[in-house]
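Box S2. Input/output pair 1.
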Amino acid sequence: MRFPWFKFTVAAMLAMNAWAASALSSVTGMRLASQPEKTRLVLELTATTAQKIFTLTNPARVVIDLPATSLVGKLPAGEGLVNNLRAAKRENGDLRIVLDVRSEVTPRVTWLAAENGAGPRLVIDLPASKSAASSTSIDNQKPAPAAETSPVAAPASVPVTLSAPQATKSAASQSHARDLIIAIDAGHGGEDPGASGHRGTKEKDVTLAIAQLLKERIDAEPGMRAVLTRDGDYFVPLGERVHRARQLQADMFVSIHADAVENAGPSGSSVYTLSSKRATSEAARYLADRENAADLIGGVSLEDKSNVLASVLLDLTQGASMSASMEAASHVLEQLDHIGNIHHQQVQQASFKVLTSPDIPSMLVETAFITNPAEEQRLADPLHQARIADAVLTGVRDYFYSNSPPGTRVAQLKLTRQARN
């Protein structure tokens, strides 16, 4: 007996499977942004998919193959290292995107998980060559354009180059005293908006506004200079933030955030330093990787040190850094208590990635709960943002005048003030 319906059903199922396989995911949008050190392409997809990314030469191109993917959104215009973009469907159902680039590059790929109603995003960074980066003047550098408009009014940003700190033109600099370098990290950014309040205020916008205000205040403080890990609305990986601070030989690292919970009730500020457990695991990682690191702790390489000596050096450096972090964080928490509620009365310890530098005292400031409607309103207020910046500056300044590193202008200013008194 024959079953014609069975043959039809099988054919239909095969056709449906072929259709599904031909469109497992879709690229619904693309954004290209030029940053000081790289050009970033972001692909917005409906689902994650395997990707094959390779480069071609003569002329230089970057090729992106996405299996069983269709293109819905439009291609952006060329920018930065990318002259032009092309896309076409291949016979096997793959979507091929070709970037015509100005010079040979080595792409770096990152997936961002779906969140806040957005699908997964494939982020492809094209780093600028060292020669191109060094030839770019500070006036020509600009942050990536904001992906969305923000209700928070942020001051104009000042681009930062990752060069060694330069001495300021002052009498103190002539005597070879140096300025303290404070690295300010505006949490989240770009494709990572962070938390959002009920009114739509985004954490990434609040943190950048406060970071820029804090930079203005630190730069106006004698003997201090601030640098930003990001100066616009673009994404910087957590490890890269720490790396930038270490490149700049920062004396302190301050990361700005806005807390969030599902319940709208909690309120108040908190300050965190690195937990002992995370510090131990990071120490083990540094020791394991020391052969590949030229400058791990305070300018001293561990590459040629024995295991015992390397461990002792790292323990001493990390212990001093954690102690300094706790003291500095206490000063900041005390100042935040003057301008609003405090969620935790003591400095907290946690395993935040941005706090893991072994030789830079580091703290993470949760300015308020953006999920609390009243605090969200204050966080979006430029006047309250300025109060937060003032509080953090005062705390940092109090710490450094109590613990002035030798050879700094702050140490000289402290001695001058003591002589006058």
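Box S3. Input/output pair 2.
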Amino acid sequence: MKLRMIGCSHHTTPVEVREKFSFTDAQSEAALNLLKDRYSDCESVLLSTCNRVELYVGTAMSEARVPEREELLSFMAEFHQLSLENYESYFTSHLDSTALAHLFTVASSIDSLVVGESQIASQVNNAYERAVRLGFAGPVMHAAFQHANQVAKRVTNETEIHRRRISVPSVAVSEIASELFERFDDKQILLIGSGEMGRESLTYLMDAGAKNVVIINRSLENAKNLANDFGVGTGRWEELDSAIAQADLIVSTTGATQPIVTEERFRKIMQTRKKGDLLILDLAVPRDFEAAIGRLPDVFLKTVDDLQAVCEQNRSFREQQLPRARRIITEEVDRIMADWQIRASGETIRALRNRAIEIRDAELARLIGKQSMQGVSEEMEREITHAFDRLVNKLLHQPLQSIREVAQADQRDSLISAVRRLFQIR
């Protein structure tokens, strides 16, 4: 079995280059079809995300070959109608065990821009399932990508690489808010702002059990669009003071250039407030709430700077898990390569044994059938048969052992090809 990967990623390739080589779902199907026409013996999977573009090509046929790095580069450049010489240096290529190790590293999210991010495993699986659905995946891709999924699960279960949040909204909810509140379903929550930060924050709040959420935004239409996606309520901008007075938790994510709530305004709001502690998660830059508000009694104000410090601690913790994750990947690469080696050599070994047995049986039949052997006892016939068996086994032992033990894939393929030619095994 042979496997090659060629691709570019955020490590070495700027986004303006990655986007030139990216593939939509429709383009992926078209590209894989063209690749199949050009290399009919090969299977393929194409992975295209915002941070990487990777093409995996493989074959289980011992006499077939996978395209070289330059061939695949030319194919990708040709598909996108780009000049290869301007982009060749951005691409890396891996073969066989290193290609497997790279795939496992990607699927386990330890090669991601954000170590431990959760999206890449499903993106890898979606790319594989598309190739399966369209008929471009075969035994090599099945083995590689199904095993990649198992490796990703091992890394998740046996390390803590995914267990600490590292985005500002996730830390705000899972670590800061959860320290003050044991539950969220009985809390009145106010979300100020309806952009991407607000959407992500609301996602984590709903996952934590929040039920009573009101969104207030300068654009009521934008607030309603976000609220409809999550089934929560909205309020008008003019109702902000009243909503603050009723809230247990405020998450503010506007794009205002000045604080939307000053200390003076907040003090007036607090005079009408009948609740206890108030937690304000000010995720906006510049800040939405004046810093002095955090010094008022019963008010806990956390800003992006406070949350970034926690994010960095969690990011550092995740990176400490990398050595263990890499050991898991090495173990799994060794395991699948050993399995591939057995599969690759098994057919030739069986064919060589069968050829030797055919020759042995023919020679035994010729010998036993001679006139001079007619008076030989059954015991002597058995001894002669055993002698032939021992001779065949001794002659085959070293060649078969060499096939089983050769480590490098290219050496194994060369040895198997030589054996098949020498003994005319088809």
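Caption for Box S3: The mean pLDDT is 89. Strands lie at 2-9, 43-48, 52-59, 92-95, 188-192, 212-216, 233-235, 249-252, 278-282, 299-303.
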